[in-house]
Design brief:
With 447 residues, the protein is of the alpha/beta class. It is 35% helix and 20% strand.
Length: 447
Amino acid sequence: MSSGTGNDGFGRRGRTATVASVIEVGRLVPSGHFAVRDISLCVGCTYQPGSGFLPGIPSQIPPDLAPQRTIRGRTARNVVVTCVRCKSGSPCPRPAQCYGGTIMPTSRRLPPHVRGADRLKPVALGAADRMLSTLAPVASKVLGYLPFGPRLQKLLMEQTWRLGDAGMLDRYLVSGYQNPRINIQSVLLRHVLISKVFGAEYDELAEQEFGFALAMNELLRQRALELGVTMGSYLNPAKHAAVQRVDRVIIEREMEFEERWRAELTLRTAEPIRVLEFACGSANDFRCFVGYGLAGHLDYLGVDLTPTNISNALRRFPDAKFEVGNILHLGHADGSFDYVIASDIFEHLAPSEMERALEEACRIARHGVVLTFFNMSGEPEHAVQRRRAYYWNRLSRSRVEADLHRRFSSVSTIPVAAWVNERFGYSHSYNVHAYTIIAEGRVDAPD
């Protein structure tokens, strides 16, 4: 949380609050000098509480919920709340790229209008957090030895993802190196889909984008070193806020190729391809399909096990198709989609469940699959690893390739770190275990 200067509402120069992170809608918990109420905010925009209008979100705030700041017992209502993400005034020019959240600036002592049980929530939630922190290591060890059946595995997966509030789930996998605008595997996925629609027509632009994405990765790497930040995908608000501080170094440039692709693709006409995405999250990659002008050339459906992710996706893109579903058994017919895509999900499944999900992807895909892995190696067998109730397996490249070869005539594997080093001379890939596999030519293609 950083601060600048602003008017405190009493003719004095005060502090302008900058939102570093947000907390779940409806909860009221202290966060430095901030508490949270049921207010929607387009994080990335500047909000003047006195106006009663939130840029990017077409809603009015009731006066009693307007952001306030208590100064020496009096309330100042014209505190400016700003997020560095988009730095725009009203209205937000990029609502699809802004992050939803909820905030209410206050003093550390909750303001007088927050009474009764609401005043006890911060205390109760704090005590619960401390208790969970104490019990988590013990629970982690116990769960590591328990055998998980399919039903328990599904339940634990659902509960694991529900630990994150809607705002955090919406943004934590699109920050830092995972930002789909500059993540090499996300860029590669888009290029594969574009090539399926337009052939080799945009190969030169695709090559340029790889160079740009690697330059942005390098800026992040250097800035993280300067700030002493360990980059990663964090649900922890403080760690995620640190990654977002690093993100500021590319904020002025990250959309360069999004704008170029959109100018190229938006007005093009072509026969769309049918695409099903496993574990789509909160439209993590789809938001760039839209921004880059690619979505108009896809007949797309996104599936995720977590209702909160689907709600986030539909909030962003109400006209798109998203549904809650279990990738182990979807009801779609054989070969009902041209391509099935999946990113960073198979490592989180028990080995038997992973094989079942892979079989389901291959069954539904008419032409091929594009699979992204964050934890793969050249070892001959999968290394099964548990983190609490969650799998974090290191998958065997040869095992996955063998499974795919039984179903497709062509299997191309890209070890991302080695690939960017050999092709672009970049030796600082953030993840040496990142692989992308493209399998095509289904051997038992349905009629």
